[in-house]
Design brief:
The complex is a heterodimer of chains A (about 120) and B (about 425). Chain A is about 0% helix and about 60% strand. With about 120 residues, chain A is mainly β. Chain A starts with a strand and ends with a strand. Chain B is elongated. The two termini of chain B are about 50 Å apart. In chain B, about 35% of the residues lie in helices and about 30% in strands. With about 425 residues, chain B is α+β, with helices and mostly antiparallel strands. Chain B contains eleven helices and eleven strands. An eleven-stranded antiparallel sheet of chain B has the order 1-2-3-4-5-6-7-8-9-10-11. Classes of the chains: A mainly beta (about 120), B alpha+beta (about 425).
Chain lengths: ~120, ~425
């Protein structure tokens, strides 16, 4: 059974016209992963490994929670930890870390609300 | 009968330990332990400087704070991997420069024993220091295999993330009010994600996969007010049907034993304290190994070819003084070849190693009083066949038969006939060390 790490009730206040850039940053060595950012509406985005994507303006992200779902693995024997930073507009919102002895293929789920700043 | 067999094996094991250690054709896992001639029951491999300090402190500092040389201790440390470099999987698998491989694979080892026996069987303290690194030279087939694994794993991860994010969103944002409604909505995402991303399956296989997923998720129970455990099970159904874990484990195994050439380079030296006085020591022996290996794959994946070039330097004065009846040459150059095969639980290995040795012996003085030397040379051959049987994941039964190089002591004793049981226990990790000590 794979372990899922959930980070709930995250809040990132943003004004209507501010563009929101979502970033996945691999910190530990040899990580590999696919992240899908499921936003309110049809403009879901995918990030392969480390990278960033614009997920829309503040006004597009109101109401429902935005879900970031990452399917990660780390196959290299020299690394014993999986460490990933999630950022919005360069601001760190989640610093995920787990030992590979606990789970070497973690699923990481972030639920984020974007209220008016 | 079972106990009789165990007793026989244990007797043979003790006989094999009483003999001189075999100088096998391979780069040692821990060069420092190898040069001491010891086979440590565990090699500490600390992954951080903190764990390294703890391992050294707890092993080399006695109860009253004085320095001690621990018995049968071995430690191997790879400095590069003590901190994060945000190294991508691609950069890890295909280093751009040889220096990258050199730095990443460099490891330092240290080993110690209180039972390094001199020629008169006096037990003395011995320390071994070693270094090793590995260079890997991939080929086209290796790259194709890696690309296929990465591509298949990426497809699976994309499908899992597309379906998983939608499932989480449906339940968290209360877009469905029954399990039936959830399945109807998620079915659309499952169809789209698999049809778009699972290019390695044909349409019939895709439809079968979709049917199997829908059937299995219909058996899960959903509590709309507490859906985390349902989503965990749901994600695991997708993962299991895509066979992601199997694929990942195959990939993980492959990258530790890749097809193509690799070259191990290792160096070690031995420091002996013949009077057990810390201020009086000798450097009796140094070794340098270069070991190229070729790993075959596909139909020949059971086969591995290995070569060795090994230079060993002995301090002749030391051996004359502390191993009075030994025959030692100062410079020893070994070269050899080995072929090994692996069939599930059984493996065979054949090796042939030649040795050229020489030393300079004082031969008086000339008419002007200058010292003269003569060169004493010899050559020798070692051949060995080994059979290993994996009794379980942790226990290997080995038998070796052949002829060894002439030992330093008892030079006629060259027959090798060793049976041994090797027990594999997990090495201590950072977690098992007391970091607060």
């Amino acid at each position: 059974m794979r372990k899922t790490y959930r980070y709930k009730n995250l809040v990132f206040p943003v004004s209507d016209d501010t563009e929101v850039i979502f970033e996945v940053e691999f910190i530990s060595d040899g990580n590999s992963g696919q992240s899908v950012i499921n936003v309110p509406g049809p403009n879901d985005k995918e990030i392969s490994n480390s990278g960033s994507e614009s997920i829309g303006k503040g006004k597009d992200l109101r109401g429902d929670s935005t879900i970031c779902f990452s399917d990660i693995d780390n196959a290299i024997p020299e690394e014993d930890e999986i460490k990933i930073n999630y950022k919005i507009n360069d601001e760190l919102i989640v610093e995920h870390s787990n030992l590979k002895s606990e789970e070497e293929r973690p699923i990481i789920v972030l639920s984020i609300k974007f209220p008016v700043s | 009968m079972k106990y009789t067999l165990m007793l026989i094996l244990l007797v043979f094991c003790s006989i094999s330990n009483a003999q001189e250690k075999l100088n096998k054709l391979q780069a040692p896992t821990s060069p420092a332990a190898s040069i001491l001639g010891m086979q440590p029951s565990a090699v500490l491999s600390p992954k951080s400087y903190q764990a390294l300090e703890t391992a050294l402190y707890s092993s080399f500092v006695g109860e009253n704070g004085t320095a001690v040389i621990p018995n049968d201790f071995a430690l191997e440390f790879t400095p590069y991997w003590t901190k994060n470099h945000s190294l991508s999987l691609d950069e890890y698998l295909y280093p751009k420069r040889l220096t990258d491989q050199f730095i990443r694979n460099s490891s330092l080892s240290i080993a110690s024993t209180q039972n390094f026996q001199l020629g008169d069987s006096t037990a003395t303290n011995g320390l071994g220091f070693g270094y090793r690194t590995t260079f890997y030279f991939g080929n086209k087939k290796d790259r194709e295999k890696i690309e296929k694994y990465i591509s298949d794993l990426k497809s699976n991860k994309t499908i899992t993330a597309l379906i998983g994010s939608e499932a989480q969103s449906l339940l968290e944002n209360k877009k469905v009010s029954t399990k039936g409604e959830f399945i109807e909505k998620i079915k659309i995402t499952i169809l789209e994600a698999i049809n778009k991303n699972m290019s390695r399956l044909n349409n019939i296989q895709k439809n079968k996969l979709i049917e199997e997923i829908l059937l299995e998720i219909s058996t899960l129970s959903l509590d709309l007010n507490n859906f985390d455990s349902f989503l965990n099970d749901f994600n695991n159904v997708i993962d299991s049907k895509l066979k992601s874990e199997i694929l990942f484990n195959e990939f993980k195994t492959y990258i530790t034993d890749r097809q193509g050439w690799s070259i191990d380079i290792a160096y070690a030296n031995l420091l002996n304290f013949p009077t057990n006085n810390f201020e009086f020591s000798y450097l009796p022996r140094q070794s340098f190994w270069v070991t190229p290996t070729y790993n075959f794959k596909d139909n020949l994946s059971f086969l591995k070819i290995m070569g060795v070039v090994r230079y060993e330097w002995y301090n002749v004065d030391y051996f004359k003084k502390y191993f009075a009846n030994s025959k030692v040459y100062e410079n020893n150059f070994d070269y050899g070849l080995a072929i090994s095969t692996q069939f599930e639980k059984v493996s065979f290995k054949l090796e042939l190693v030649g040795r050229n040795s020489e030393t300079e012996i004082p031969a008086g003085t000339d008419s002007e009083g200058n010292e003269l030397f003569r060169r004493d040379k010899t050559s020798d051959l070692q051949y060995l066949g080994s059979f290993n049987y994996n009794l379980s994941d942790q226990i290997i039964l080995s038998y070796s038969l052949g002829k060894s190089f002439e030992p330093m002591l008892n030079t006629d004793n060259t027959l090798i006939s060793l049976i041994s049981l090797n027990f594999g226990f997990g090495t201590p990790s950072e977690k098992t060390l007391d970091l607060n000590k």
